[in-house]
Write a structure and sequence with these properties.
Strand 6, helix 8 and strand 7 form a beta-alpha-beta unit. This protein has an eight-stranded parallel beta barrel, surrounded by seven helices. By secondary structure, it is an alpha/beta fold. It has one domain: TIM Barrel. Helix content is 47%, strand content 15%. It holds the Pfam family Pro_dh. InterPro entries: FAD-linked_oxidoreductase-like, PRODH_bac_arc, Proline_DH_dom, Proline_oxidase. It catalyses: L-proline + a quinone = (S)-1-pyrroline-5-carboxylate + a quinol + H(+).
Length: 268
């Protein structure tokens, strides 16, 4: 089960995906480092991975893995080093989603990074009640929109699937209307259809936005979208610290558990 959703040989997985016309973003699993030595180790892991990424690839980084819990300045400096290296190879970096209490720092760091690295992306989680306002503030940015897999207090987050879906669509409308680059991270067929319709409505061609899905989930749909000419990027996690990743996906939201169990018995 782990190998289905977490790359055992990340280089082989990237080759296979790119050979099939899919784009990739990779995530070195692990977050919440305890000291600067661990943060430095994560930076080195990011720099090493940038040397191995194929053309057009993206690197997803978690700011807590770069030292955010220790110091916002430390995380900023480390993220800037990663962005600089990525730019030198024509690759992109996306600041990945984390716990709700990291969002303000994430947005602040993203804003600062964009002054030197305009292509750095950031994730907005639709389950948070302020997601639409955040999308508006990110005008012109690369934004990965996902539903969100972390827990948060009820005052800050939508709790029902219907509320989250409505928030996702409102965010999609803002992003598709804007001047940025939407990254539509969802496996939900209805939301994919809505994203496609909004792209047509706002005159976006296949190069002006992309779909994103998790490695191992709905691979047939990933290939179908790529076959239609869409930019389809696969989120590929790798590394030893896979337990927290899978438990977050499978346990924090009951709907995710049912979804992953269905995908486990069907390659579609």
């Amino acid at each position: 089960m782990v190998r289905r959703y977490v790359a055992d040989d990340v280089d082989a997985v990237m080759r296979d995906l790119t050979d099939r016309g899919l784009l990739v973003t990779v995530d070195h699993l692990g977050e919440e480092v305890a000291d600067r030595t661990q943060a430095d180790h994560e930076v080195r892991a990011c720099l090493a991975m940038l040397e191995r990424l194929p053309e057009g690839a993206d690197l997803s980084v978690k700011l807590t893995a770069l030292g955010l819990r220790l110091s916002e300045q430390l995380a900023l400096d480390n993220a800037a080093s990663v962005c600089e290296a990525a730019a030198g190879r024509g690759l992109t970096v996306t600041l990945d989603a984390e716990e709700y209490d990291t969002v303000e720092a994430q947005m602040s760091i993203h804003s600062t990074l964009r002054k030197e690295h305009a292509e750095v992306g950031v994730v907005v989680q639709a389950y948070l009640r302020d997601a639409v306002e955040r999308c508006k503030k990110l005008e012109g940015s690369r934004v990965r929109l996902c539903k969100g897999a972390y827990s948060a207090p009820e005052a800050l987050a939508h709790s029902s699937a219907r509320e989250i879906d409505r928030s996702y669509v409102r965010c999609l409308k803002v992003l598709m209307e804007g001047a940025g680059y939407p990254m539509v991270a969802t496996h939900d067929p209805r939301l994919i259809e809505i994203a496609s319709a909004l792209a047509v409505l706002h005159g976006r061609d296949s190069t002006a936005f992309e779909y994103q899905m998790l490695y191992g989930v709905r691979p047939a749909e990933q290939e179908r979208l790529a076959g239609l000419g869409a930019r389809m990027r696969v989120y590929v996690p790798y590394g030893d610290d896979w337990y927290a990743y899978l438990m977050r996906r499978l346990a924090e939201r009951p709907a995710n558990l049912a979804f992953f169990l269905r995908s486990l018995v069907s390659r579609g």
